[in-house]
Amino acid sequence: MTDTETGPAPAQMGRRERKKAATRQAIADAAMRLFLERGYDDVGIREIADAADVSTTTLFKHFPVKEALVFDEDADQEARLLAAVRERPQGQSIPAALREHALRYRIPAADGDARFTAFADLVNNSPALRDYLQGMWLRHSAALAQVIAEESGLSEADPACTALAHFTLEAPRAARGHDDPRQAITRAFDLLESGWHTLDPLLGDLPR
Predict the structure, then answer these.
(1) Span 3-18, mean pLDDT?
(2) How far apart are CA 137 and CA 147, in angstroms?
């Protein structure tokens, strides 16, 4: 719900994969519609399954826990985040690549988008969803820190990698209250870039 683009078109799927993807999307769409209409806590799993015309067994094959129905793009979002670092153009720094990712995927959705406001309200009004979101945030942060370490040549235990990952995920959220979120996120990443360049003696000629 926070991403506004789907990224590069995936490799063409076979009929079975397309059917599975369509079923998963139908379940997620039905769940979100019911959650937004009545609230997360007042909608049951069986109701969602019935609305998507699937069995509860099928639902749980795609979404092992109820909270995952709200964050159905979790894996795709993490994949795009990591790809921003791994697939950045030659000569582009890691903070610059992450800035471009944030501007492309995370800021526009929050800028006057009624769907984003409704989604944010849904999450904020449910302790279960807030807890799940925090766990997702931690998983993404850990995965990003590992990739930053791999790409920079620093140790996985280096706090610089953890800090950059942490602030990369936090900066777009902090920018949402500003009149110009895009300018705010750019300024935040300028600061991150300056700090990252202080590691130059350690990074040497490795990609930064």
Answers:
(1) 62
(2) 15
